[in-house]
Every structure is written in C-alpha cells, then in structure tokens.
Amino acid sequence: MTVGQDSTARRDEVAAGLARVEERIASACRAAGRLRGDVQLIVVTKRFPGSDIEALCELGVTDIGENRDQEASTKIAALPHDVRQRLQVHFIGQLQSNKAHSLANYVDSVHSIDRDKLVTALDRAAGAAGRDIGALVQVSLGAGPTAVGRGGIPLDGVAELANSVAAAPHLTLRGLMAVAPLGVDAGEAFAQLDRVARAVRAEHPEATWVSAGMSADLEAAVAHGATHLRVGSAILGSRPPVG
Ligand SMILES: *Cc1c(COP(=O)(O)O)cnc(C)c1O
Predict the structure, then answer these.
(1) pLDDT by residue (tens digit) across 189-233?
(2) Is the CB of 178 under 6 A from ligand 1?
(3) Is residue 243 one of the residues assigned to a domain?
(4) For every residue of 142-178, which 3-state class applies, written as one string?
(5) Share above pLDDT 70 across residues of the chain, in percent, rounded to a whole number
(6) 230 CA distance to ligand 1 middle (Å)
(7) Does the residue 221 lie in any domain?
(8) Which domain holds residue 50?
(9) How far is the CA of 231 from the centre of ligand 1 (A)?
C-alpha cells in the first residue's frame, strides 16, 4: 500500500484481492468436496489501517483478525459504529496475560491460548467485562528435525488445556488453532491438527472450529478440515512494517 494512495484505488485493490482469495477458497472447497459455507474467512488486518477494515466491511467481510492489542484496540475504537457492529474480531497473536483486560472489551474470540495462565486471566477479564469470549487452544505442530515452531502448546498438553478452557465460566471452547511450521509440508501439519481436533471434539462436542491456513497454505488447510482461514497478505498486499 502506498501512503496517501487514492482511497478509491485502494478499495479496488482490496476488492480484487478479496475476489482472488474467494476464488481460491471456492475451488479448494470444490476439490475437497466441502461446502463454501462451512469455511469462514477471517481477513487478517494487522498493520493495515482502519480504512481497509471499512472497505472490507463494505465488500461483505464480517470477520477480521488482529495480533497486537495496542494497535487493534485503537483501530477498532475509531471505526464507525455501523462497521464496528457488523464485525467479529479475532485475536490471533501471542498474548501476555496483562493484556487480557483490554482484549476482553473488544474481541469475540482469542485463537492463541497456549497456557493455563492465559485461561485464568482471560476468563477473569471476560467476567469483569460482562462478556463471553470464544477461545481456541493454539497447537504447536513443530515436530521433526526441520520444523521451526511458530507458537502453541505441544500436542501432549492440548487435552488438559482444552479442559481448562471448557471449565472457565466466561470462556467458550471453540476449538483449535495452528500455524503450519516452516520447513514441513503444510498438508501433513494440518492433517495432524485435524486428528488432534477430532480427539478434542470427542470430549468437547462444542469445539468445532479448526483455525488453520494463511495466504500461502489455505488450500491445504481446506483439504484437511479447516473451518476458519486467517488470510492477510493475499488480500491486502504486503504488510507495512511494524511501528
Ligand atoms: C499474520 C498472520 C496470518 C496471516 O498471514 P498471511 O500470510 O498474511 O495470510 C495468519 N495467522 C497468524 C497467526 C498471523 O499472525
């Protein structure tokens, strides 16, 4: 994105990016024999301005993802009321428990629960805000010698953390989230996630979400049962630097 770019030109660019990704999702669903309606697109708007969120909203996008509390809280508070009302906000970034109170005011779900301390903090914050927040356990799929892990709890801790989320009065266990590790086949990683998700669903039938797949690997995620895709750069372009 160019600073000061004409807003009509930017809207067209966003519309074109969204159309390309919609086409990719539709064809991945066809290939997998799945319904388009069973896959939710979350547009990752981190580091992009609120005006892009408004443009996305006009194009029918209902779900956005953000990864830094400070940026997200400011940006979302400045949105026009009608835009804000139509949005579901997903938090997908690494989270410190001292941010839980801020997040509880504006997020609908947190995809990055990777330790018990966060469950406690987020549950307390949601209770104080009088809200119920969706929570997903982030799974680390970084097994194997070439894999580079990208956050989350190891596989053997997933069941216990899911139980802890499910027991929290102000949180609703939605399911699991993962980022495919660098250096392994995304399809294999997402197949592993799918197996863990099935095991969690056997204990917690309400945990139906599998949040997986980004710009580079959304087809593999759809093929392996993802219900939520988190797509940024393929729609909005390369991200401006942090800061
Ligand atoms: C930034 C981010 C995405 C989106 O990545 P793209 O490659 O831009 O689609 C998805 N998931 C997480 C956890 C992210 O931090």
Answers:
(1) 999 999 999 999 999 999 999 999 999 999 999 999 999 999 999
(2) no
(3) no
(4) CCCCCCECCCCECHHHHHHHHHHHHHCCCEEEEEEEC
(5) 94
(6) 6
(7) yes
(8) 7-232
(9) 6
Q: Binning pLDDT at 50, 70 and 90, where does residue 138 land?
A: very high
In a domain, 2, yes or no: no
The closest alpha carbon to 65, from 52, 46, 86, belongs to: 46
Lowest mean pLDDT among 29-38, 62-71, 148-157, 187-196: 148-157
For the CA of 231, the closest atom of ligand 1 is: 9
Both tokens assigned to 58: 């006009």
- Copy the structure tokens of residue 194: 């799918």
What CATH number is given to the structural domain containing 222? 3.20.20.10
Residue 68, ligand 1, Cβ within 6 A? no
What letter represents residue 186's amino acid?
A
pLDDT of residue 183: 85
In a domain, 240, yes or no: no
| Ligand 1 centroid from CA 46, angstroms | 9
Task: Look at the chain and report how many structural domains it folds into.
Answer: 1
Residue 215 CB less than 6 A away from ligand 1: yes
Closest atom of ligand 1 to 92 CA is 13
